[in-house]
Amino acid sequence: xxxxxxIVQHPTVDIESAEEKRQQDLDIVExxxxxxxxxxxxxGADEDDGSPDKPSxxxxxxxxxxxxxxxxxxxxxxxxxxxxxxxILPTIGExxxxxxxxxxxxxxxxxxxxxxxLLLWGRIADIYGKRSIFILGSAFVAxxxxxxxxxxxxxxxxxxxxxxxxxxxxxxxxxxxxxxVTFPPSKAKNYAFSAYAAGAPLGSxxxxxxxxFIASFANWRWVFGATGGLAIAVTxxxxxxxxxxxxxxxxxxxxxxxxxxxxWIGGALVTxxxxxxxxxxxEGNVVGWKTIWIYLxxxxxLLLLGMFVIWQWYQEKHTTSKPLMKVSVFKxxxxxxxxxxxxxxxxxxxxxxxxxxxIFQDYQDLGPLQTTLRFIPTGASGVITAFVVxxxxxxxxxxxxxxxxxxxxxxxxxxxxxxxxPDTSYFAYGFPAFVLSVIGADITWPSLxxxxxKSLPQDDQALGGALINAMGQIGRAIGLAITTAIQTxxxxxxxxxxxEESGKIMPWEPASLxxxxxxxxxxxxxxxxxxxxxxxxxxxxxxxxKIEKRPQQPVRxxxxxxxxxxxK
Length: 568
What we know:
568 residues, mainly alpha, Growth Hormone, Chain: A, two-stranded antiparallel sheet, globular
């Protein structure tokens, strides 16, 4: 309580001061006689202030754990759906008669729809309801995933892969929004975001494990059956454990009419921009970078993106309509830097996992099972790291965590790119590289997702999740395109042939190894760029997961039972 200066300083009001003090003492006694939960309300204390003697959970511990596991399942399932298919691409191509030059579209069709629709679905979720969009998106993924392996032709198969990406674009950013509005600043929120952020890198790792084991002992179609089963589990868990939002966190509910407030023009512009960019980057390595229309698509993408930014700025500054994304948030250099870090880091980490898969499966000719076994240590280290980071994120400055995470991934890339003899034991370079890469991912992602959540209001939490995932997806596409181009160019140079005739990776061929290592050197450079951005823009920041304890103020209970509180 802040005392009035005239009562404290003037001796002529000693009687009033004594009377006031006596009344305060009575008020505190009366408050202490209330039940504990009511005491917190009457005293103005927040139950989520992080104090050890007060609960910091929005509901029961068991339900909180179930909720976090549910939304983490969406993040896990998204990257698992991509990586589990990468390892069985040759098998799918052989059975469906898909040429090797077009097999990448089995992965790219998913990535295209996912990356293009993230921002639009994020805004729809913030308006229409995060719980509803999460459940519908998860159910849509489950249905399309189960149908997919029964499609007998290339075009239909790729269309259903794209539909899976559409569903993932609905539930992945919404998951972050659900965590953002459910957990107030507390240790529980740190744990929740650490667990969620661990889902994506673990999904990449377990995608290899699941795809490899199933492809080795059963038909490849069971890979889609397994991921479809996981999608069903996420859907059912979403229905059971995600609570309906409280009234003060809802905006315009009411069926189709609520969607009228969505910025459809902005959604069309940004979707078209990302679609053109990702398509150009994906096809550039197929048709060759000398093809004119590849650069035309990139120019169109940049023009659409510029129109989108101008349209968002106009709506934010000159209309009462809510834009799809407030461009004013990018005035913060630190927020913009966080998006750049997400793009660069996702590119480095994801491309390393893909390149390592090629090294083991194509260059060393190990086969799916042996390749899978080499990814097992990453799963265990990822779980341990996620648990440790959930505690460190509230104690260690954010810039130090981000710097350590990016340096860890850069060392991982270095271990695969330096000229270690190819017959060297896996435990001499592969094992430490994988462990460090997952440590870096499970440190960087929770720090960035929690930072993004805290930087945006509650009404924009799902959009924030969409934004950070979109940056990661764009970074992945750009990084993979450049990595592949470098790899192809080096292989062609060492083979003495034009780039268009470079061919595929050959087992134990020096040219193939040189190309793979050259691509990973680029990933090393990306990780170092991340570390530089962190050092410049995040150095000196506080602790993103810090629990601020708010002081409790004595409460005066009036004779009628109403509470009164002295304020400044």
